[in-house]
Every structure is written in structure tokens, then in C-alpha cells.
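FOLDING PROBLEM:
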Amino acid sequence: MRRYTTVLGGVAVLTGLVLAGCASTSATPGSGTGPTGGTSGTTVSTMTLPGIGASLVDASGHALYFADAEVGGQIKCVDPCSSFWIPLTVADGSTPTKDATLTGTLTLVTRPDGGHQVMYDNKPLYTFVQDNAPGQATGDGFTDNFNGTAFVWHAATVSGAVASPASSASTGDGYGY
């Protein structure tokens, strides 16, 4: 399992935010634009991802993730976490849609910033800023810590089961962002 720790108030957060700004995604948390916007087409679809299998993806084909720390729809991934794990949101008054192959339930939860985040079977969904292209799932199995909350991230699979990470390499207490 890969482990990434972010120390608040330290150089790691500043470095991480700079790197996040250099990533190829143009989405901003809660904006409803960019790869996680789902503003056109189906909000959540399926794709077979290498090493994971049938997984959930957003309208642009980017892998969707959930965190163990967020149970019962409780949102704990807020700034700076949401700078790396971009919430899948829809515009006010919109209803998320899914392709016909998904049997789970899509719902919405209101984020602390007021955005409307999509949940699949009561799990808030996110994309990962280091997934640089559709069909990648580099965040599966990541462990990180923001604002004193430890997160373990999983690619959201069609079956709902936790996928086994393709790589179990650990970087100790490194800063992956």
C-alpha cells in the first residue's frame, strides 16, 4: 500500500499545492467544471481499469474514488484534502445520472463549502489530481492524512468491493503530492 503524509503548516503542504496546480486537470473543488463536473452526458459510468476491473468513472473517463474515513455520507475531505481529491459535484438543482449497467444508488450530499457532491451507495466520490488521463487509477490504495484525519482511498468498483491496489509499494512517510 502506498502511503503519503501531508504535514499541515509545513513545506509539504505548500509543495503539494504547487504540484497540484501544475497537474493537467482543470477542475476545482465544487466547481462543477473540468473532469469531475458531469455537466454533460452521464455523471457516473463504468470502465474496466487495468489491475482493478469494472470501475466507476466520471463523464470524462477519470477513475472515481472513495475514502474509508467518510462513512454515512459524512464529508471529511475538505481543504487541503480537496485540492488533491477533487469532489465529484453537480450544479445546484441537477440530479446525477448513471449508465444502465450500474445497479447502485446515486445520491447527493451537501459539502461544507455548499457544493453538491455525488455519492454512490452512500460513498462520496472523488477524482484524483495525479490521474493524468482517462482510464488511470493511480490513487487506488493511497493513504494520506489531512487535518488530523487518516484517509485510505479506493477505486470505486461496480461490485462495491474494495479493489486490491495494483502496487503495494510503500513510500513510508514520503510526500506523494
About this structure: The mean pLDDT is 77. The longest strand covers residues 149-155. The two ends are 16 Å apart (CA to CA).
